[in-house]
Amino acid sequence: MSHLTIIEQLDDPEEARQSGRKKIEWARQHMPIMTAVAEEFGAEKPLDGEVIAMAMHVEAKTAVLTEVLAEAGAEVAITGCNPLSTHDDVSAALDANDAITSYAKREVDEEEYYAAIQATLEHDPTVTVDDGGDLVMAIHEDYPELIDSIVGGCEETTTGVHRLRAMDDDGALRYPMFAVNDTPMKRLFDNVHGTGEASLSNIAMTTNLSFAGKTVVVAGYGYCGKGVAMKAKGQNAHVVVTEVEPRSALEAHMEGYEVCPMAEAAEKGDIFVTTTGNRDVIVEEHFERMADGVVLANAGHFNVEINLDELDDLAVSRREVRDGVEEFELDDGRRINVLADGRLVNLASPVAMGHPVEVMDQSFGIQAVCVREMVENGDAYDAGVHDVPDDLDREVAEIKLAAEGVEFDGLSDEQVEYMGSWQHGT
């Protein structure tokens, strides 16, 4: 390989491996869905002979998914999908598995980041599992010869699905991909509760500040924005929502939040959280209106939502005032604090642990059964973006409910017939 694995880059790989193994074991004991999937996969080996390339946030919960795919018979090559979200000890623990090669390392530059993605592709994958779309883009741009042997893949996050749908609309996506982000078991839990809880908890831990009594500005009222707004409100913050989509703005208004343009919100906010997946959400005109001491955080996938170039141009100085907090001082003395270099705060801040274990258990359960579906029934899917089959989504929900000891009703035969018929009238 032209790129070093994580083990080859660490001063004390054995110590790191042991530390990472503890994190993985803790996560796994709180992931009943993945435990059930692992039992099935380990017995049936549905991925025997497959090679899986992964670009993910390499931390403990992701490691559980990675190991379960390996236990199903696959060879796995994994790297990070963000330069700051990898836990090196977890990466080392994965690389110690004979069936897994990990190239993921924290705090890499852009060249190292993309070299690691390319390294996973040198394993000649038959399946891809991506978070953000960079892996799929690299295949289409730099390794098109792999496309004919790839049966399909899965995309984890909102930004990645947006990119894939744009590719699909242009006729550029040349193998089938499941939009895991868009299925209910992902959106309703990971995006809402996971992003909401993890973003706010990591902002609090990074800054040691409270939300109570503050004004929190949430940019974007999609599923992630809803989660951040709801959790901030639950911590006694006043929440202001900014939106560009009229129905989402109306929904936020009807749910009791103040809604206004960012130019107005910039004058009101104490803490700003971007959740749009788009660029230039907070820019120069907004920085100029902000109060001294505001905190800016991004919960979107890429570090483009807060325009740091424009902020840097306005600043007369910048310095790190806490681990993961960079202060930009403007010429009038106002200070604007940016968390985690504008990268996704729930994973890239120095104290970040990502989404709660139980939430990621659901998302990775979907990923696992979708990989199985692509391997077993890939011929049924044309090149392009596909919704996760509803029976797979329900399968994971039922596993979770059983693990929680929650019983629920079912339809009678008469109810099924009634709901499926158009002939019943008044």
Question: Could you please describe the fold and organization of this structure?
Answer:
The chain is built from 17 helices and 15 strands. By secondary structure, it is of the alpha/beta class. It has 2 domains: 7-186 and 355-404, Rossmann fold; 192-348, 3-Layer(aba) Sandwich (Rossmann fold), CATH 3.40.50.720. Helix 4 links the parallel strand 2 and strand 3. The chain is globular and about 65 Å long. The N and C termini lie far apart (70 Å). NAD(+) binds at residues 157-159, 191, 220-227, 243, 278, 299-301, 346, 355. Its main location: cytoplasm.
Characteristics:
single chain, about 425 residues, alpha/beta, Rossmann fold, eight-stranded mixed sheet, 17 helices, globular
Strand order, main sheet: write it out: 9-8-7-10-11-14-13-12
Q: For the record, what CATH class of the largest domain applies?
A: Alpha Beta
Structural domain tally = 2
Between the first and last Cα atoms, what is the distance in angstroms?
Answer: 70 Å
Cofactor: NAD(+)
GO biological process, one term: one-carbon metabolic process
Binding site for substrate: 131, 156, 186, 190
Catalytic activity: S-adenosyl-L-homocysteine + H2O = L-homocysteine + adenosine
Task: Chart the SSEs and their pairings.
Layout: H1 13-28, H2 32-44, E1 51-56, H3 60-71, E2 75-80, H4 88-95, E3 100-102, H5 110-121, E4 127-130, H6 134-142, E5 152-155, H7 158-169, E6 176-179, H8 184-207, E7 215-219, H9 223-234, E8 238-242, H10 246-254, E9 258-259, H11 262-265, E10 271-274, H12 284-287, E11 294-298, H13 308-314, E12 315-322, E13 325-330, E14 335-339, H14 345-348, H15 357-377, E15 384-386, H16 390-404, H17 413-419
Parallel strand pairs: 1-2, 1-4, 2-3, 4-5, 5-6, 6-15, 7-8, 7-10, 8-9, 10-11, 11-14
Antiparallel strand pairs: 12-13, 13-14
